[in-house]
Amino acid sequence: MTEAIRKSGKRHYLDKDARKKQLIEQAADLVEGKGWAVLNMSALADHAKVSRQLVYQHFPNLDGLLVETARHIFMETMMMSQAAIMGHQGNIRDAVRAAGMVSLDLPQGRGDALWQLIAGMNYGSEALEKLRMRIRELILSLWVPLFQKTYEMEETSARSLVWMLIIAFWGLRQMVRDGMVSREQAMDEMDRVVKAVL
User: Fold this and answer.
1) What percent of the chain has pLDDT over 90?
2) How many angstroms separate the Cα of 69 from the Cα of each of 18, 117, 134, 186?
3) What span, in angstroms and rounded, lies between the C-alpha atoms of 41 and 49?
């Protein structure tokens, strides 16, 4: 940005897609800093230092903003988790450990925002609830085939078992977040859970 633009207070021009991406990143930053309950059109406008009119040009309603923000927060972690799992196709324990480390290494705010999505704290948004269900299906699609192949399980059993393990992991992550156990202790406990369940 040139000195003249900075002094005039004018925003640097961004095309529509780049501006929307920037707003989604600002919304994610807001959620990761203060939680889902604070995200609305005015809060985003204030946080991004833009007008509410500009926010409404990109997001026609709050549900749209919530869904786009949730998708943004989730997808990067999903891709990293998928890579971790694919790197350990032959060993469930190692796959769980690798994917667990991805989640444990997230910044605290991002991890908290993801936990709130997974746990279903949708704050009355039907659109966010639908997205949460799609997120659950995406997570299950990463793990269920590995469990079915390794343990020759029916899909229904594998889905139930995987989801129980996902919730157990996020519970341990919360304990790490709150300083109750170390990262390594949490992963050791997860190893025990996986071994006991399987």
Assistant:
1) 62
2) 15, 11, 14, 29
3) 12
Q: Which residue has the tokens 């040139």?
A: 2
Q: Name the residue with tokens 């993801």.
A: 114
What is the pLDDT, as a whole number, of residue 59?
A: 95
Q: For residue 50, give the CATH number of its domain.
A: 1.10.357.10
Q: Which domain holds residue 56?
A: 16-197
pLDDT at 122 over 70: no
At residue 38, does pLDDT exceed 80?
Answer: yes
Tokens of 190: 């997860």
pTM: 0.80
| Cβ burial, residue 16 (10 Å; 0-12/13-18/19+) | exposed
Asked whether the CA dihedral 13, 16, 18, 20 is positive or negative, the reply is positive
